[in-house]
């Protein structure tokens, strides 16, 4: 895994939080603005987990911000409740419950539809706060009289009444919120979140229950928002109804975009810029309503020119400086790289048999499909196919373009539901199963067109696949250290060795050559330790040299495994497989050994059209 300096980020954050109330006032920040920045920064951490790390753009945070804040304020102003910290946590829990219910609805859709549902939800909450629930929320008056935070210690009660005391209280909770979020993003759960952001369909196909992961992150983000809402009420001594306004959600989104999504610190930096400028334009320059126009222009400029936001720009600059320093002192850099290799080998522990499963010595069919049919409207992509694969078999599937090969694979891996027919895998009927459960059972495929996690490294890609195998389809291991998952490193490194990517483990996928990406595509499927692996055109798009290398690789992968391979490169395929199935126009034409297929007149006529004779 990547080398990290433990607690460096946390230590720097503490330093910055301690220095801020003494430094920022000299730069023109009022104490109230500084406190407000912390609240927005904290709410933004939750939003960043949702948007920056999991790729879910929600405009509904105002609903949770308002609900959590109102709940805490209601307890403290309308009941005999006096414990502010308990009220904050109850407000947070309330926001979490609401987040759970809304998440169940909103997460039924993805992309723009998900975002639009969250907009609608924010509006519904705004309406509900002002109308049916106004007797509890104070309607347009909000709830006045919220006490400042206090901490009962038994013998005395600490009161946080002055701006600086409140700052200390907010900074403490900001830090706690940050540490929790850092633990989450460094956990196996956090890596699956990034997988979902990059390629949710592949994450699903690698055995992760994407919907459950999304729901948990949605609830976490709602809880951060609810906690922030509670803090706002205490800071202002009044819970304002405009917490529920859509503008609240909009500001969280904009501040995160300015500061940099997927960084955790981005929302705080964005809040610093946003709140400072809005104060400056309104109170120092007295721009009247024009401040919104100018702030809008500043927002557009920042987002256009700093694509990864302020935090992204700072991290890019730091990366460049580090790179320059390494180039300037190559002697110092080399030993580190060299040292990494033995460490990796040591991690393999010389125990190559442990992680990736091979065949179990079973005999007989591992997969049996009968009458498999897929209809797309009027088009019959697959028609009444009977197909059996035995344990330990290496099967090839060929057929002209459009013969229905990929559709057939999609049905076998439960990516698409057959129109008719049944699929029995390892003795179990999986016809109506989903792709995640099929993968968990040990049936998966590599894709004809690469489906990788592009912005992550090779190691992270393989880790995502291996996590599905080692943790099951869902695990709430939010605070577990990714480096401490048993067998994980070994499984990742064994897979990298199998697909010849050991030297590229820490390279971002976007920097790989095409052939390397194709090998990683196979590696992702392999890292799930499938008992039956389907490879959809593994040689597609490769140069002749890459094909030769990949065929050699596939031969070594094939040892002790059960594989079905689709490919158009018949010479290579016939070298690899023991038996070939030929599809034509969606139907099974013939099955046989490569020699039988080569000489079969039906195949010659219907599929090869004599071409293979020429090649042979
Ligand atoms: N989602 C879909 N909706 C409608 N038609 C589809 C869909 N997927 C595939 N088809 C059609 O089904 C037929 C079989 O497609 P499929 O991709 O399975 O063929 P193939 O043998 O894998 O082709 P190739 O070798 O070019 O990849 C084609 O006519 C294709 O256009």
Count up the domains: 2
Main sheet strand line-up: 10-11-12-7-13-14
Helix content: 55-70%
Mean pLDDT: 88
Structure keywords:
616 residues, alpha/beta, Rossmann fold, four-stranded antiparallel sheet, elongated, disordered C terminus, binds adenosine-5'-triphosphate
Write a structural description:
With 616 residues, this protein is α/β, with parallel strands linked by helices. The chain has 2 domains: 8-319, no CATH class; 365-609, 3-Layer(aba) Sandwich (Rossmann fold). 57% of the residues lie in helices and 12% in strands. The strands form 4 sheets. It has a 6-stranded mixed β-sheet, with helices on both faces. A 4-stranded antiparallel β-sheet has the order 6-5-8-9, covered by helices on one side. Strands 1-4 form a two-stranded antiparallel sheet. α3 (61-78) crosses α11, α4 packs antiparallel against α10 (210-236) and α18 crosses α19. Bound molecules: adenosine-5'-triphosphate. Pfam families: ABC_tran (PF00005), BCA_ABC_TP_C (PF12399), BPD_transp_2 (PF02653).
Structure summarized in a few sentences:
This protein is 57% helix and 12% strand. It has 25 helices and 14 strands.
List the helices and strands and how they pair.
Layout: H1 8-23, H2 31-53, H3 61-78, H4 84-106, H5 111-130, H6 134-137, E1 143-144, E2 150-152, E3 157-159, H7 163-185, H8 188-198, H9 200-205, H10 210-236, E4 238-239, H11 246-259, H12 266-284, H13 290-305, H14 309-328, H15 330-348, E5 365-376, E6 379-390, E7 394-398, H16 405-412, E8 420-425, E9 428-429, H17 435-441, E10 443-446, H18 458-471, H19 488-498, H20 514-526, E11 532-536, H21 544-558, E12 563-566, H22 570-576, E13 579-584, E14 587-592, H23 594-599, H24 601-608, H25 611-615
Parallel strand pairs: 7-12, 7-13, 10-11, 11-12
Antiparallel strand pairs: 1-4, 2-3, 5-6, 5-8, 8-9, 13-14
The structure holds adenosine-5'-triphosphate.
Adenosine-5'-triphosphate binds at residues 376, 379, 381, 399, 401-407, 448.
């Amino acid at each position: 895994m990547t080398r990290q300096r433990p607690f460096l980020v946390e230590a720097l954050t503490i330093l910055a939080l301690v220095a801020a109330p003494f430094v920022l006032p000299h730069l023109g920040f009022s104490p109230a603005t500084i406190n407000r920045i912390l609240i927005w920064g904290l709410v933004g951490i939750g939003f960043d987990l949702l948007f920056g790390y999991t790729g879910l753009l929600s405009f509904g945070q105002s609903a949770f911000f308002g609900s959590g804040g109102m709940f805490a304020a209601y307890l403290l102003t309308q009941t005999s409740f006096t414990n502010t910290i308990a009220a904050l946590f109850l407000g947070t829990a309330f926001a979490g419950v609401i987040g759970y219910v809304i998440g169940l609805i909103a997460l039924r859709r993805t992309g723009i539809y998900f975002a639009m549902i969250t907009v609608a939800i924010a509006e519904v909450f705004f309406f509900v706060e002002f109308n049916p629930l106004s007797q509890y929320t104070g309607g347009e008056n909000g709830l006045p009289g919220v006490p400042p935070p206090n901490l009962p210690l038994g013998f005395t009660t600490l009161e946080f009444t002055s701006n600086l005391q409140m700052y200390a209280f907010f900074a403490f909770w900001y830090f706690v919120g940050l540490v929790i979020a850092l633990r989450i993003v460094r956990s196996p759960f956090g890596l699956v979140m990034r997988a979902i952001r990059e390629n949710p369909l592949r994450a699903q196909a690698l055995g992760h229950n994407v919907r459950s992961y999304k729901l948990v992150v949605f609830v976490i983000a709602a809880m951060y928002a609810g906690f922030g809402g509670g803090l706002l009420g205490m800071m202002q001594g009044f819970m304002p109804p405009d917490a529920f306004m859509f503008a609240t959600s909009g500001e969280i989104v904009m501040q995160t975009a300015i500061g940099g999504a997927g960084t955790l610190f981005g929302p705080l930096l964005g809040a610093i810029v946003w709140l400072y400028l809005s104060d400056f334009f309104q109170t120092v320059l007295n721009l009247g309503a024009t401040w919104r126009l100018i702030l809008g222009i500043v927002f557009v400029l920042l987002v256009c020119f700093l694509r990864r936001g302020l935090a992204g720009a700072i991290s890019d600059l730091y990366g460049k400086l580090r790179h320059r320093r390494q180039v300037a002192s190559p002697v110092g850099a080399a030993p580190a790289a060299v040292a990494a290799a033995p460490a990796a080998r040591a991690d393999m522990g010389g125990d190559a048999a442990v992680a990736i499963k091979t065949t179990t010595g079973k005999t007989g069919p591992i997969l049996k499909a009968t009458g498999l049919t897929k209809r797309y409207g009027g088009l019959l992509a697959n028609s009444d196919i009977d197909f059996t694969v035995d344990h330990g078999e290496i099967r090839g599937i060929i057929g002209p373009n459009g013969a229905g090969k990929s559709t057939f694979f999609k049905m076998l891996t439960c990516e698409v539901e057959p129109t008719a027919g049944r699929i029995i895998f390892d003795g179990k009927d999986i016809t109506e199963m989903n792709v995640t459960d099929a993968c968990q059972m040990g049936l998966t495929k590599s894709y004809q067109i690469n489906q990788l996690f592009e912005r992550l490294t090779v190691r992270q890609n393989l880790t995502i696949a291996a996590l599905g195998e080692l943790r099951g389809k869902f695990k709430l291991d939010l605070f577990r250290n990714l480096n401490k998952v048993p067998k994980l490193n070994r499984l990742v490194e064994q897979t990298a060795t199998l697909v010849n990517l050991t030297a590229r483990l820490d390279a971002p996928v976007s920097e790989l050559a095409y052939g390397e990406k194709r090998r990683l595509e196979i590696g992702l499927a392999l890292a799930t330790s499938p008992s039956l692996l389907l490879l959809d055109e593994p040689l597609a798009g490769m140069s002749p040299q890459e094909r030769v290398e990949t065929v050699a690789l596939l031969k070594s992968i094939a040892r002790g495994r059960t594989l079905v391979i689709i490919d158009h490169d018949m010479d290579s395929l016939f070298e690899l497989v023991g038996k070939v199935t030929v599809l034509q126009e969606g139907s099974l034409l013939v099955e046989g050994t490569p020699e039988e297929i080569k000489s079969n007149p039906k195949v010659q006529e219907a599929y090869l059209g004599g071409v293979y004779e020429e090649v042979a």
